[in-house]
Sequence to fold (435 residues):
Amino acid sequence: MKGVNTRFLVAAILLAGSSSGGPTLASEDSGRPAYIVTNLPSLGGTVSSGNSLNDLGWASGTSNLPGDTTQHATLWLDGRRIDLGTLGGPNSGVVWPVKNDLGFISGIAETDAADPLGERWSCSAFFPARTGKTCRGVVWERGAIRALPTLGGSNGFATGSNNRRQVVGWTETTVHDPTCIPPQVLQFRPVIWGPGNDQIEVLPSLPGDSVGAATAINDRGQVVGISGICDRAVGRFSAVHAVLWEDGAAVDIGNLGGVAWNTPMAINEWGDVVGFSNVSAGDGGAFNAHAFLWTKRDGIRDLGTLPGDALSQALGINNWRQVVGISCTAGFASCRGFLWQNGAMTDLSSLVAPGYSDQIYAAGDINDLGRITGQAFNPTTNEYSAFLAVPEQAKGRAHSGTTSPRARANGRRGAPLALPQEVRQMLLRRLGLSD
Fold:
């Protein structure tokens, strides 16, 4: 249908049906669904992560190569793993929910060239080790990788993309920004690439801010991201403000009380935004964030944490307003994936059907079929695996036994997962909290 966003239309029909006796989300009253979870094959290393899942069932993310010193962006399709490769450098990754259903995957990849200014750049926080190579935003399509243009600087970073072939992210200019903290030198700006291969549009930062980054885009062209100062190019004071761009204008969507780490991660077709935000101005640049949901009607809402935890991050949302993410104890000593829906946050491991023994460490994305991808940990092998979780009803078969999904779920409570030191350090580095 020309001019109609069919993906949004399908979601609208489904949600309209929910108010007239049609499909509805599971609730406490009707019992929660059990999930059939399957680990996805790695590229040979011991750490993989599912970070994006579209409605075609394409899961994408990262997987370490043998030896765990490098990782490549990986697509999991019908049980197969596909190494998406790099730009000639050691590492690449799909590290944000991508969402489009075109077979058009956006992410980051290193080149074989050393960074001329010795910057660490944003990409380095998402790779197993810092390499000193330049990193670009990229698109993988039809088996080929394509680097996205910068604004004159060496580095870029691509996050989400939509069904209009638009990709968002951030890229360096040639401006030496005095608000940067070494080794970062260059200013970076939020951008939209596409739909043409060489198209790039700079989005405005909020007044008084020198940098910004776009993190997600929907098919309506609404973009979310951050605005702030250069800092270390990894969150913190680069994320003084959480921003929604619409019709060319930047709007501050608020925060949970903090002055840093105010970071949208995903936006659905209704314009609902999820992410994480520091909860107190007194924390300054220290990371003390909770997951949030922002809607145009209700503004920003603190989704809290799982019981006993202190920190949380919402990472993905679908058009049913189901939210997934990660909840952790203070200092990231232990973490577990969550599903938030109907006003309640639930430990995802407590919803897994019997027979799956790994612990759900993080839930990275959820599609409109309610399927979830993320990262699970096996304490026996010390391996982190990407997983795909499918609601039991979607399998078209009932689970053996006489107990209800609610009773089975209540019979298993996921304990917080104590993180190995190297994994905890990687998470802290991703948040710019460790060298």
